[in-house]
């Protein structure tokens, strides 16, 4: 079944994307074409979308080059990037790049703010 085949009004691609988004740790996804045009995004912040769309394809190009340098008959299909806050799964296709951003077990948790400074004993005006 190709991605253009409709099943109940939804393409196979739309069904697959909905399934991916249903996983509890998935924050969002971003689908771009080979020219870097954003085709679909479920990320909330436009600035974040633009950063992913600009930076990740550069990593894909470098990674693909490294894979081909090691074995010219091989090609990059997927790239997995872990950071302090998220994990990014990048599925590489000649026409599209799909980025899935999700939290993973043991992900970075923002430390709580420091406690307020102790009150000075001279500040207490009780009788």
Automatic annotation (TrEMBL):
Species classification: Eukaryota, Viridiplantae, Streptophyta, Embryophyta, Bryophyta
Organism domain of life: Eukaryota
Family per similarity comment: Belongs to the GAMAD family.
Protein's organism: Sphagnum jensenii
Protein name in UniProt: Roadblock/LAMTOR2 domain-containing protein
Region entry Disordered, spans: 107-127
Pfam entry (one): Robl_LC7
InterPro entries, per database record: Roadblock/LAMTOR2_dom
All copies of domain Roadblock/LAMTOR2, residue ranges: 13-102
């Amino acid at each position: 079944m190709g991605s253009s085949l409709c099943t109940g009004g939804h393409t196979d691609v739309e069904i697959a994307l909905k399934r991916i988004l249903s996983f509890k740790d998935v924050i969002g996804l971003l689908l771009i074409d080979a020219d870097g045009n954003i085709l679909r995004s479920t990320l909330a912040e436009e600035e974040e979308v633009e950063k992913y769309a600009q930076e990740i394809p550069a990593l894909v190009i470098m990674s693909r080059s490294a894979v081909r340098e090691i074995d010219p008959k091989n090609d990059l299909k997927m790239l997995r990037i872990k950071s302090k806050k998220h994990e990014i799964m990048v599925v590489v296709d000649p026409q599209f790049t799909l980025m899935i951003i999700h939290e993973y077990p043991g992900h970075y948790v923002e430390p709580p703010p420091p406690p307020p400074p102790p009150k000075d004993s001279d500040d207490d005006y009780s009788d």
